[in-house]
Amino acid sequence: MQRPGVSMETGGPQMPPPSPETICFHLAQYLLTLLETDGGTAGLDDGDLAPPAAPGIFAEACSNETYMEVWNDFMNRSGEEQERVLRYLEDEGKSKTRRRGPGRGEDRRREDPAYTPRDCFQRISRRLRAVLKRSRIPMETLETWEERLLTFFSVSPQAVYTAMLDNSFERLLLHAICQYMDLISASADLEGKRQMKVSNRHLDFLPPGLLLSAYLEQRS
Question: Are residues 211 and 118 both part of a single domain?
Fold first, then answer.
């Protein structure tokens, strides 16, 4: 089958067009694929390391002529052609998922020999690594937060850990620990204070064999 945007020959009676809900559902998936980009999170400020909210998928798509051409081409097709395109997009989505391999929650760390302390440290953002290398890190504070996260996620790997932290440097340390442990962290204002939320991207919690505090002491 040809890709969307290329004319297709049809034959036989035309089918009624699919519902708007069906079109929006599948076209949203297709446009999301078009808008995907590689790379990490955009630059973050010291006071707030939460990434900015992504723009609405259709708001961004409608501002791009290429994506609008895809949409208009689809809407101008006959009902039978639209059904063919939708089936094609479904098949493409399934095959892409297979090519990508394990997704969120499919934990392969136990069988990955490259999951070393150095790899964990490289997972930390460049700016935070620079802070950890240059600054005199309060190891007691670092170890305290490591112990809290280890205790919490070892018992409840799918829960969300929250903490109120007004100290910006302590928030930086917690973000660094989370990145080292492959956890997700974000901070936001809550009633005039800064709240940190930490969650686990995997089904299980598998901390690195060497914690960040021990790794930094080895490097010093």
Answer: yes
Judgement on whether residues 130 and 181 belong to the same structural domain of the protein: yes
Same domain, 203 and 117: yes
Quick check: is 7 in a domain?
A: no
Are 107 and 202 spatial neighbours (Cβ–Cβ below 8 Å)? yes
Nearest-angstrom CA–CA distance, 118 and 121:
5
Residue 195 phi/psi, 5° resolution? -110, 135
- At residue 193, what are phi and psi to the nearest 5 degrees? -125, 165
DSSP string computed for 119-178: HHHHHS-HHHHHHHHHS---HHHHHHHHHHHHHHHHH-TTS-EEEE---HHHHHHHHHHH
Considering the domain architecture, whether residues 185 and 115 belong to the same structural domain is answered as yes
Question: pLDDT tens digit string along 146-193?
Answer: 999 999 999 999 999 999 998 999 999 999 999 999 999 999 988 888
Looking at the fold, whether 127 and 202 belong to one and the same domain comes out as yes
Instruction: Kindly tell me if the per-residue pLDDT of 51 is higher than 70.
Output: no
According to DSSP, the residues that pair with 51 across neighbouring strands are: none
CB atoms within 10 A of CB 179: 21
Apex 97 CA angle, 94 and 102, nearest 5: 145
- How many domains does one find in the chain? 2
Q: Is 116 in contact with 32 (CB distance < 8 Å)?
A: no
